[in-house]
Amino acid sequence: xxxxxxxxxxxxxxxxxxxxxxxxxxxxxxxxxxxxxxxxxxxxxxxxxxxxxxxxxxxxxxxxxxxxxxxxxxxxxxxxxxxxxxxxxxxxxxxxxxxxxxxxxxxxxxxxxxxxxxxxxxxxxxxxxxxxxxxxxxxxxxxxxxxxxxxxxxxxxxxxxxxxxxxxxxxxxxxxxxxxxxxxxxxxxxxxxxxxxxxxxxxxxxxxxxxxxxxxxxxxxxxxxxxxxxxxxxxxxxxxxxxxxxxxxxxxxxxxxxxxxxxxxxxxxxxxxxxxxxxxxxxxxxxxxxxxxxxxxxxxxxxxxxxxxxxxxxxxxxxxxxxxxxxxxxxxxxxxxxxxxxxxxxxxxxxxxxxxxxxxxxxxxxxxxxxxxxxxxxxxxxxxxxxxxxxxxxxxxxxxxxxxxxxxxxxxxxxxxxxxxxxxxxxxxxxxxxxxxxxxxxxxxxxxxxxxxxxxxxxxxxxxxxxxxxxxxxxxxxxxxxxxxxxxxxxxxxxxxxxxxxxxxxxxxxxxxxxxxxxxxxxxxxxxxxxxxxxxxxxxxxxxxxxxxxxxxxxxxxxxxxxxxxxxxxxxxxxxxxxxxxxxxxxxxxxxxxxxxxxxxxxxxxxxxxxxxxxxxxxxxxxxxxxxxxxxxxxxxxxxxxxxxxxxxxxxxxxxxxxxxxxxxxxxxxxxxxxxxxxxxxxxxxxxxxxxxxxxxxxxxxxxxxxxxxxxxxxxxxxxxxxxxxxxxxxxxxxxxxxxxxxxxxxxxxxxxxxxxxxxxxxxxxxxxxxxxxxxxxxxxxxxxxxxxxxxxxxxxxxxxxxxxxxxxxxxxxxxxxxxxxxxxxxxxxxxxxxxxxxxxxxxxxxxxxxxxxxxxxxxxxxxxxxxxxxxxxxxxxxxxxxxxxxxxxxxxxxxxxxxxxxxxxxxxxxxxxxxxxxxxxxxxxxxxxxxxxxxxxxxxxxxxxxxxxxxxxxxxxxxxxxxxxxxxxxxxxxxxxxxxxxxxxxxxxxxxxxxxxxxxxxxxxxxxxxxxxxxxxxxxxxxxxxxxxxxxxxxxxxxxxxxxxxxxxxxxxxxxx
Length: 1058
Description:
Layout (H helix, E strand, L loop, with lengths): L4 E6 L22 H24 L4 H28 L4 H9 L3 E8 L9 E6 L1 H6 L11 E5 L7 E3 L2 E3 L6 E6 L13 E5 L20 E3 L10 E3 L3 E5 L2 E5 L9 E7 L8 E9 L6 E9 L6 E7 L6 E7 L2 E2 L19 E8 L2 E6 L2 E8 L10 E7 L6 E11 L6 E4 L3 E2 L19 H11 L5 E8 L2 E8 L5 E7 L30 E2 L3 H6 L3 E5 L11 E5 L16 H6 L3 E7 L4 E6 L42 E2 L2 E2 L35 H31 L4 H29 L4 H4 L5 E8 L9 E6 L1 H6 L11 E5 L7 E3 L1 E4 L6 E6 L13 E6 L17 E3 L10 E3 L3 E5 L2 E5 L9 E7 L8 E9 L8 E9 L6 E7 L5 E8 L2 E2 L4 E4 L9 E9 L2 E6 L2 E8 L10 E7 L6 E11 L6 E3 L1
Helix pairs in contact: 1-2, 1-9, 2-8, 8-9
């Protein structure tokens, strides 16, 4: 018996809140810049034609005939004006939401501020959630309350992360973060919207990652402390979802030192901080440090909020370069003594030279002014303790940091706008007018009273579509795949490509395998996945199972086998309720990839498994489609034959075996601007009429020139101007409708070529791509400028209306081997994600400078042109400064007299694994103990805890070493090699380092020094940032560094071509 399988999707009805265009203040109409421009042209042309009409009415009978023609033209223009005005009307934003997300209403979030608001400012919107719930317009759990953001260049709004406070009350707060700077007047064309899904009981969780809502957030649910924090001293760890600080005495015996601090945030100025803390020991002084400008020992520069257990008083205690202001700002007192072992909630606000402070919602210090002597303008956030011998034993949790402004903005909702579903009559019936899902067609068809099952056009991306079968009578299910007894390399296309879609003209089985690329549909327009038998040629089979689609799914990774077993196995498994045709239910488990994680089960998908490990079981309702043939290996999975957890026939429900063989799938694209197409057709018709009119007038010119010479000439020129304006308008509208022509998107450039990136391994976002082009040939053929200014790189995503220019760096300009370097904007699987593309364009002789910030091209870059060292680097010890465009590291003896310590290191990058580093180095001092060099894979930079790989050079010597450290243990000269000649003091040399897994390579002045050397397990470090340091010698080092470039590295480089 052939395996039988059908997959369908359903999206439950959704409604929303909105704002009508009639209530807009008028300043926000520029939602479509090009259409608005077109409208202005129409207005001008309409005025000209009206003037012309008035003149013609005074002329001869012959000219009156012309006036009748122009009257017809005016009618057509008025209709066109109406269409364009309708497009410009803000109320159509609801239709844009509906076309993209199936929402029937939206409300704009109005943000009015007397001051500019910076990107990443956290906005708080208050809504009457209780009223919405009582009116059955919202779910009590808030899952259907969403925030969306839309910019001019976005074809579709995108959902933002939001946090709800006081859920299901009359004063529910919706918190979200600004996506761009906001001037005093809201930027025209960009807007935030509040959306609801009324009645959608199956609404999955909204995007609600607090790290994308607050400026900084940590609830310590992730035990990987090093991701956000830098340890300084003491026993610091995450335990039971809280940060534990056990400090003992400060290492320097100073009054207070910073134990741990946030790696970034040195630019934070006016902020508000909230946190929970609990000090376990009696008569101890813990507390947070704000505006941390320098966290190094004996250099502490910060404002410390100090508490003492058993006491009522608390202090804001400033430090500047380790100078201690003592109890200068002890003005506040707690309501009662701080109790050891009890949790407290604290809030701190620092604004300019003032601070305020609350404990358990009681104001302790109110807008206290800090004297100029102790003023610190900005800095990050840390935690620490007083110098007591026993030290502190403090727990911290729920740390939230937000940007603060003195006068808070007024945030409110615009009035509701609703969609007239009649406007969408015929949706899905043609390729030019596709629907987002069969459920959308179902909802529209209900208005007409007709529910006809059959073939409809459904979007598979923002601008592509494919024809598949819709079951409208059962609520609007979309057929996305069919499979009968096929399994070999199914993972290559199943549900990720349009494959043999012709078989989807009916849900009946058996049949050949076929599918559509269902990831876009499943991510944005569906909530449920169904497996069905194939014994009904007109819709859902007699037997089926269905369950909600996975929470956290993303369109570029859902059901994508090439993501790999290692990545999938790390994903959290969530419980999900599977419902069956017979009324039974079962709790199963799935991850955000929808892929079975068990290594031996071949990465089957879509998958709901009996446990979190990913096991299969017979005669249960947890099912999955096997996509890999027994005995094969792919993307890290093997298939032992037990991963085929689906029915084998129409009668095999639930399946009696899990060791049989089964399924397979693909993708499409087209924009839906119906009214613009209609407008364009009218323009075409009017343009044709005017051309005929112009030709007729040319023929009559000789006959009339003696009679109405001046008047006629004016008519002729006016009509000529009209035709020119219509051509311009036609081009504008044509640009909006012809989205499939990539060359037309790059205005003012001669040519555009897609950049093809082929890799046998997945490439991560921020990987630096190197494209080689024959720039000399382009220049010689007058197709490009010699300076390279016109050589640009653009990136286009499915949801982008227009490509965006990205930064690129050119090497070997104007040669036959010019290199164009740019950074990937998203993860790239082995097969390039359909719909996303990189393009190189050239040929604009008047091109200004291209986007070429190397910080946006390399994983990390510093040429020290910016003297603000603290922006990227953390000082540890020694005299570290930027001077004359280079980094100067002057160390003398190490503070601990250990062989070596890290003097300065990059603040971020602790997650860097396989990388390639290039830099220039110059050591000024001479001596056997003058040994500078970079540290790679810095996992711990603290004094006496050094964990890193040190590439050590010795001034005036030939030898060099890769010298590993593990928790300050020194491998010494374990990996020693020799340079071509001794290192010359005072001379610059270029070095390159590559660390990949447990191996490293090393070049000096392009000569290989260490070649793919394997590091023993004892000294293995998997990842880490980069730093610089020196040997402990009395003289120390006086080293200069410059032009630091770090890129991600893959062992087999991708093939990049045009």
